[in-house]
Design goal:
Blueprint lengths: L1 E5 L2 E9 L4 E5 L21 E5 L16 H14 L6 E6 L1 H12 L4 E7 L7 H17 L5 H8 L8 H12 L3 H12 L4 H4 L6 E6 L7 H9 L5 E5 L5 H4 L1 H14 L3
Parallel strand pairs: 3-4, 3-5, 5-6, 6-7, 7-8
Antiparallel strand pairs: 1-2, 2-4
Helix pairs in contact: 1-2, 3-6
InterPro entries: AB_hydrolase_1, AB_hydrolase_fold, AB_hydrolase_sf, Hydrolase_4
Pfam families: Hydrolase_4 (PF12146)
Keywords: Hydrolase
Length: 263
């Protein structure tokens, strides 16, 4: 595990695996690089994997004030430069991590070979913004415990809790988030407008929808896929935190797709 100061912020990160190709993994809101613990080792022999805590998450530097997707993308570019990774990389992201991965592809098409996104959070519908921001204010005031039960009920469906130790570990890690940073990242998402750039993407994209995702239902993920030229779509029996809940399915989807497009 490394701590790297990149793009003016301290980031916790890890580069593992071997091979000429690199995959960058971007976790969900409220997650950390541990969200990829059961996916990352499976790539060990086929490619390098760079995963990290986004700014404001995990053990990376916390954030206050305004945050933009541009800043999140610049963090990835700076990390790649810090590790001396040149040429194109593939990216995979879950939820807001998917938005970051897609935005990277839009801003850096010459550095992107392909993108896989699960339940991509590319914005918030206008009618949901006011109640969402009101909820965030309560999280900042009361802490993460205020929202944990709703977040787990909608994002980590009871049908996916057969491994109770896995669920409890994730739930407890989620509680460890810095409430102000979490709210800052949410506000970044609320301000995001990605439709026009999605329509201009030219790299291969796979969108994964979760049939048990009650945060961003599969129909929303499919809608995102339809807005990206040539994007593929697949629906899995998984939820919002899919890299934690169903790592085998997620690995297979990422690996199969990247092999199919030689990325």
């Amino acid at each position: 595990m490394d701590f790297v100061e990149a793009n003016g912020v301290g980031l916790r990160c890890e580069l593992t695996g071997a091979g000429e190709r690199t995959l960058v993994l971007v976790h969900e809101m409220g997650g950390s690089l541990e969200s990829w613990d059961d996916v990352t080792p499976r790539f060990a022999k086929s490619r390098r994997v760079l995963r990290y805590d986004t700014r404001g998450a995990g053990l990376s530097q916390k954030v206050r004030g305004e945050l933009t997707l541009d800043a999140m993308v610049d963090d990835i570019a700076a990390l790649l430069d810090a590790y001396g990774i040149a040429g194109k990389v593939a990216l995979a992201g879950i939820a807001v991590g998917g938005a970051i991965a897609l935005h990277f592809a839009a801003r850096h098409p010459k550095r992107t070979s392909a993108v896989v996104v699960g339940s991509p959070a590319t914005g918030i519908a206008a009618e949901r913004r006011v109640p969402a921001l009101e909820r965030l204010a309560k999280i900042e005031a009361a802490g993460m415990a205020f929202a944990v039960e709703d977040s787990m009920q909608n994002g980590y469906a009871p049908e996916l809790r057969s491994d109770l130790k896995r669920f409890e570990r994730f739930r407890t890690r989620w509680l460890g988030n810095d409430p102000s940073s979490y709210a800052t990242i949410w506000r970044m998402l609320a301000a995001a407008e990605m439709q026009s750039e999605l329509a201009r993407l030219s790299v291969p994209v796979l969108v994964i929808g979760g049939s048990l995702d009650r945060v961003r239902p599969a129909a929303m993920a499919e809608g995102t896929a339809k807005s990206i030229p040539g994007a593929r779509y697949i629906e899995l029996r998984t939820g919002h935190y899919m890299s934690v809940q169903t790592p085998d399915l997620v690995f297979d989807c990422i690996d199969d797709f990247l092999r199919s497009v030689a990325a």
